[in-house]
Amino acid sequence: MKVKILDNLNYQTFPIVDGMVEIDENTLHQIGITLQFKGTDGRVETYEKPKFTANYDELVNSKIRTKYTLSQELAILRQKEEKIDEYKAYYDYCEACKAEAKTEIGG
């Protein structure tokens, strides 16, 4: 059985395949209580949910990069007076990325 782990992230770490089962955070936690993993030194350790350490700026940047490369961003900023509609779309997208990042980090 393949399991898709749902979290508050906007990306997936592996592609969805036929027959995959989705589980929510509470179910994952319950599974994790009983799961144990053998450490590299032979010790058995209880499952702990991984912690993500991306800060706000890194998260915003990674979100913006899903749509715009750095070169595209610089081009839009250079031409913001000439291509007002394109700049507005870029600006709105960046603001949405900032709002999502703030929510994900919990601030």
Structure write-up:
This protein is an alpha+beta fold. The protein has helices at 25-34, 56-65, 70-78, 84-105; strands at residues 2-5, 20-23, 36-38, 44-46. Strands 1-2 form a two-stranded parallel ribbon. The protein is elongated and about 60 Å long.
The best one-word shape is elongated
Give, in order, the helices and strands.
EEHEEHHH
Rg over C-alpha atoms, rounded to the nearest angstrom: 20 Å
Q: Work out the strand percent.
A: 5-15%
Q: N-to-C terminal Cα separation, in Å?
A: 36 Å
Largest sheet: 2 strands, parallel
The overall strand count is: 4
Helix content: 40-55%
How is the largest sheet built, in terms of strand order? 1-2
What structural category arises from helix and sheet content? alpha+beta
Give a summary of the structure in a few sentences.
The protein is α+β, with helices and mostly antiparallel strands.
Secondary structure topology:
Layout: E1 2-5, E2 20-23, H1 25-34, E3 36-38, E4 44-46, H2 56-65, H3 70-78, H4 84-105
Parallel strand pairs: 1-2
Antiparallel strand pairs: 3-4
Helix pairs in contact: 2-4
Which key terms come to mind for this protein?
107 residues; elongated; 48% helix; two-stranded antiparallel ribbon
